[in-house]
Write a structure and sequence with these properties.
The structure holds 2 protein chains of 2 kinds. Helices cover 31% and strands 21% of the residues of chain A. Chain A is α/β, with parallel strands linked by helices. In chain A, the strands form 5 sheets. Chain A has an 8-stranded parallel barrel with strand order 3-4-7-8-11-12-17-18, surrounded by 7 helices. A 4-stranded antiparallel beta sheet of chain A has the order 5-6-16-13, with no helix packed on it. Chain B starts with a strand and ends in an 8-residue tail after the last strand. The relative contact order of chain B is 0.15. Classes of the chains: A alpha/beta, B alpha/beta. The structure holds flavin-adenine dinucleotide, flavin mononucleotide and FE2/S2 (inorganic) cluster.
Amino acid sequence: MEILKAHDPYPDLRVNIGSLQLQNPVMTASGTFGYAREFENLVNLHRLGGVIVKGISLLPRAGNPPPRIVETSSGMLNAIGLQNVGVTRFIKEKIPYLRGLNVPVVVNILGDTIEEYQEITKQLSDVEGIAALEVNISCPNVKKGGVAFGTVPHMAAAVTEAVKSVSSLPVMVKLSPNVSDIVEMALSVERAGADSLSLINTLIGMAIDVKTKKPKLANVIGGLSGPAIKPVALRMVYQVAQRVSIPVIGIGGIDNMEDALEFLIAGASAIQVGTANFINPRISEDIVDGIGEYVKDQQLGSVRELIGTLEVD
Amino acid sequence: MSQHQEKARIIRFEQLSEDNFRLTLQSPQIAAQAFPGQFVMILTGKGNDPLLRRPFSLHQASTNGSIQVYFKNVGRGTDILAHAKEGEILDVFGPLGRGYRLVDEKPACLLGGGLGIAPLLFLAKALAKRNRDATSDLILLGGRSKPEVEPLVDDFKQFGMKIICATDDGTYGEEGFVTESLDSERVAPGTHVYACGPEAMLETVHDICLQRGFGCQVSVESVMACGMGACLGCNIPASDGTYAHVCIDGPVFDSGALVWKS
Ligand SMILES: Cc1cc2nc3c(=O)[nH]c(=O)nc-3n(C[C@H](O)[C@H](O)[C@H](O)COP(=O)(O)OP(=O)(O)OC[C@H]3O[C@@H](n4cnc5c(N)ncnc54)[C@H](O)[C@@H]3O)c2cc1C
Ligand SMILES: Cc1cc2nc3c(=O)[nH]c(=O)nc-3n(C[C@H](O)[C@H](O)[C@H](O)COP(=O)(O)O)c2cc1C
Ligand code: FES
């Protein structure tokens, strides 16, 4: 049996996110996979479609006080507070390892001001080993009273333009779901020059301890992730993919192969696995295998034939 | 150090008291790598609820390829484990974190309160292998009441170290807090203390050790999502003004490296 298997043609799982080529559509989501090395003993990193590292800011950030996480029904809330080592240490300490991986490394960036986004982008642009940038626009704009960049279309567009203007790297803009019209946001960012869109970031939520009448997170509110958010994420990916002409990457509650297929059918060119990495570090590899089986079973020429094939009567 | 994810068969299920249980798992890869004070992440649920794994200290890891966890049924995840059956398979990964540093040249005092007794058995085994006389070593086991302490005492007898037990209600051993013994002449000068238990107890242990000039390592808890340094959800304040992460910097710390409440 083993010998027969070895002769099976390996299914074509390659996808393109604009100029970025992935060996398969399964990436790991920012903030849920550290800087990849944390997983090296448990995961064959070389089999992933891509790795997206923890969000990086210009200066190191200590993050929020504990408790930062709380489990909720089929999900979890987090208020990590964007703790990270800052761009300088990231380049010095993390990039050498990441460069050795055989998979595209996407660096997730964040900032308090447009200038800060631009400065990080400049510092990352000439660094060897970075395949693309993912711009987290769910951060508060300190110059505009702390309103999140990703909730006001023109602010999201301004960040996108600022990043694009100083870098030739492909730019993936990561949308916040905490908006009333996700399509308007997507179109605004597309017009501003984004090469692709990834969605969704976490949904803002909270949880209360009824015994103490205190919030369960020190930060009071936090971002909801995990299986609980999948239907919302899928709907948003579907709506956005209908309207934009740049590639869309689906994120939100994906924890098995069928979830991943749903996003591809809804119009995503690739997907990111987030919270599920905590529960089963091998899940991304399992999803790659599962998609491969599906492509073979359905006798598709490649996984690309599946993208956006939703049939609505 | 390398970690492994294993499908571990439950080879023994023991109910040690009304709420306390012990599982023995066939988990050869984890057993082979484990150090005292390290922990494992166990998937308790089959579906999405409860979603996250639960952390448990290694109570034992033996050369025959088995590991043990000792736990209390306190909620949804531990309730599922409390109803597990021998022969069932659990998804486990580990060993994780930094365990106890063995201070070979000093007399040892192992101090556990309640579920904090869990990691000390594995630790006692490792310390017993030191090339020194165990007569000035001490094991202090405490709990609220007899069922939290008594079922484990026999296992600690094999090491030739003196054992003192205490319960808050006096139903087993001496009446009072186990930390009172730490503050007495029973503990030899120059002792190194290895502690695990509730935060308030660890704070008292830290204070006593500071006063008496004992080195002190404590194993602490926090909420955890990943257990391996990826989510950054398990932070606690460190005495240098930064945050430490319990899953990678700990769970065992020198008590002076942490910030204590009072
Ligand atoms: C490094 C580490 C090692 C541990 N080792 C052991 C061990 O050897 N034996 C053992 O019994 N327990 C141990 N714990 C605690 C154990 O992980 C929790 O008891 C368990 O996660 C509770 O899960 P649950 O689903 O049953 O409870 P939940 O339903 O999640 O919660 C029920 C109640 O338990 C409390 N609780 C939840 N998690 C913790 C926690 N981490 N610490 C304290 N209280 C908590 C909650 O606040 C709540 O009141 C350890 C924790 C850590 C971080
Ligand atoms: C603990 C944690 C930390 C995260 N950190 C980041 C981050 O730094 N930057 C970012 O863009 N998204 C971050 N995210 C959001 C995830 O990348 C992802 O968009 C979200 O969790 C939804 O996917 P999921 O349901 O599969 O987890 C984080 C999520 C979690 C759970
Ligand atoms: S539990 Fe995730 S970093 Fe410690």
